[in-house]
Amino acid sequence: MSLSAQDIERIAHLARIRVTPDEVGQVQAKLEGIFKLIDDMQSVNTKGVEPMSHGLDMVLRLRDDAVTEKNDRENLQRNAPQAAEGYFLVPKVIE
Amino acid sequence: MAQWEIVIGLETHVQLTTASKIFSGASTAFGAEPNTQASIVDLAMPGALPVMNKGAAERAVKFGLAVGANINRRSIFARKNYFYPDLPKGYQISQFETPIVQGGGLTITLDDGTTKFIELTRAHLEEDAGKSVHDQFDRESGVDLNRAGTPLLEIVTEPVMRSAKEAVAYAKALHGLVRYLDICDGNMQEGSFRCDVNVSVRKPGEPFGTRREIKNLNSFKFMQQAIDYEVRWQIEQIEDGKKIVQATVLFNPDSGETRAMRTKEDAMDYRYFPDPDLPPLVIDDAMFDRIKASMPELPEAKCARFQSEFKLPEYDARLLSQDSATAKYFEVAVKTGADAKLVANWIIGELSATLNREEKSIEQSPVSSVQLASVVARISDGTISNKIAKTVFEALWSGEGKTADDVIAAKGLKQISDVGAIEKIVDEVLAKSAAQIADYKSGKEKALMSIVGMVMKASQGKANPAQVNEIIKRKIS
Questions:
Q1: B42 and which of A84, B148, B341, B411 could share a cystine (Cβ 3.0–4.6 Å)?
Q2: Which residues does chain A have within 8 Å of residue B40's beta carbon, measured at their own beta carbons?
Q3: CB-CB: which of B54, B98, B281 is closest to A65?
Q4: Cβ of A87 and B98 within 8 Å?
């Protein structure tokens, strides 16, 4: 699979990663390497093997429905760059 | 104008009634101070891991069983990736390829009494996002993560609805069902039941047109208005030679219009993949059997029972069984010994009309089911006529008296059953009605009705109309 420079820009945008025009070629080569790896894996014969969603053969553990957490806002917001009136503040987002 | 066919599919976000969140032990209670119910998991602190709430899984299974769906005993949680400040992890935990519920459907009843089966595509478990406020701060948006991690069941239909009426009937039926099952409180103002409506139009027989999605409708009235507006808009666009562009739109209740929020030209790519933090959700036999055993009687079964047990017509049975509160109201009233068909008539007629007019739910009805039963009982035993019963009902509604008997006694509404008294009134009326009598004798049945009307009026509605009818006929034939 070959990726175009546009593909790289789009992937970077979706992942919110800044890739400068100089870096596009480099990222492109690396990603193509990864796709090559995927192609190699896909050439393995998996006929009769049930697809797995996880690497480990485990089942989800369930907890009982009970409130176990208390209000810890003050403590948790000490980690936030900006907070006011109980809210976390972020640069204005207008859709 | 050429005929257009409307195609509608719904996606409904149903907030489950668990006490705690789907992946954390924080409370889901509505209305708390911002961020007081947001734990390290909901805040996406590094290293914090989700632990699945059994109650959420149980409710999803309950729903699946109720709609006759296939329950995937092994379902997979996936990450849906997108960036927004009220989604601190950068992804929403949802289900993609293997949801917990697939298929099934529910039957809706339209105003004209016809029914239609609405097929469901799937229902999957996911977490809600937080809330952003944009108008409280000058230069910043505020983020409240209390709602982040609240368990949702997203229920998706096939594009099988063909009118706004069908869509609203489906939404109402679904709303009734989730409350029946007690898996959602159904509070639309608080956002516990939110509908996204996909609308497109086409000429019959043609492939589906391009759809636009109306987001976050939280009232049945708005849903009807939004669809009506959207359909008109789409038809006008196409007839003007323009193309419909796939988009997400919002409905503005003030203007009654829908407006594009974002077009999908830069289509979202959610890059779904199985969440490595969450191995497959397995519903084992013990859990499955336990949930199955706990299922309440469902609307369909209740509708059938109302027909067989109380000899109600299907139409009445269906209306009464559509939501649990109405069904309960009916059953409590009938338990007092009141005539089932009359009780049904009163619930479907007078009570519903008055509740609608006063914008009240049946749980908020000032006239209790036992009170309504007392009115019906007095109609059945001939104490009052149907018409007087309306006066009694209104008096009970406004709190004048506790039972029908109180009101009848206080207002002197008891029907006159003394034949002599009625005959006296009839004689007085007949003496003034030579023209009507002549008409009746010449074969005009309607003339009799007008005489009965005059007698009823003269008796202030207290005479028994059947009896009046009989006496008049006897006297003038």
A1: B148
A2: 76
A3: B54
A4: no
Record: contact B39-A69, CB cut-off 8 A? yes
| Other Cβ atoms within 10 Å of B290 Cβ, number | 12
pLDDT band of residue B461 (cuts 50, 70, 90) is confident
Candidates B52, B83, B262; nearest CB to A16? B83
**How far apart, in whole angstroms, are the C-alpha atoms of residue B22 and residue B37?**
13
For chains A and B, CB pairs below 8 A equal 127
Q: How confident is the model at residue B83 (pLDDT cuts 50, 70, 90)?
A: confident
Which domain covers residue A34, as residue numbers?
5-42
pLDDT (0 to 100) of residue B413: 76
Ordered strands of the A87-91 beta sheet: A83-84, A87-91, B140-144, B131-133
Q: Measured on CA atoms in the order A34, A35, A38, A39, is the torsion positive or negative?
A: negative
Average pLDDT value over all residues in chain B: 92
Domain B419-476 has CATH 1.10.10.410: yes
| Segment B456-463 mean pLDDT | 81
Give A22 to chain B, closest Cα distance, Å: 24
Tell me how far apart the alpha carbons of residues B391 and B472 are, in angstroms, rounded to a whole number.
26
Q: Do residue A54 and residue B274 have CB atoms under 8 angstroms apart?
A: yes
Q: Provide the pLDDT for residue B425.
A: 87
Compare all CA atoms of chain A with the CA of B53 and give the residue at the minimum distance: A63
Q: Which helix (H) or strand (E) holds B376?
A: helix B369-380
Cβ–Cβ below 8 Å for A73 and B56: no
- Write the residue in A69, A90, A95 that is nearest to B143 by C-beta: A90
Whether this model's ipTM surpasses 0.95 comes out as no
The pTM (predicted TM-score) of the whole model is 0.77
Q: At A22, which CATH number?
A: 1.10.20
User: Along the 95 residues of chain A, how does pLDDT read in single tens digits?
Assistant: 678 989 999 888 888 899 999 999 999 999 999 999 999 999 999 999 888 889 888 999 999 999 999 999 999 999 899 999 999 999 998 75
Dist. CA B327–CA B315, nearest whole Å: 14
Percentage of the residues of chain B whose pLDDT score is greater than 90: 69
Check pLDDT > 80 for residue B183: yes
Residue A31 lies in a domain: yes
Sequence-separated (6 or more) residues with CB below 8 Å from residue B361: B325, B355
User: Which tokens belong to A90?
Assistant: 């972020």
Number of domains composing chain A: 1
Residue A33 domain flag? yes
Please state, for a pLDDT cut of 70, what percent of chain B lies above it: 98
Q: CB burial class (10 A; 0-12, 13-18, 19+) of residue B337?
A: exposed
Is A23 a member of any domain? yes
Q: Could you tell me the residue ranges of all domains in chain B?
A: 5-290, 300-411, 419-476
Q: B197 — phi, psi (to 5°)?
A: -115, 120
Cα A93 from Cα B15, distance rounded (Å): 26
Which of B131, B139, B141, B268 to substitute to test the interface with A, most A CBs within 10 Å?
Answer: B141
Residue with the bigger pLDDT between A94 and B166: it is B166
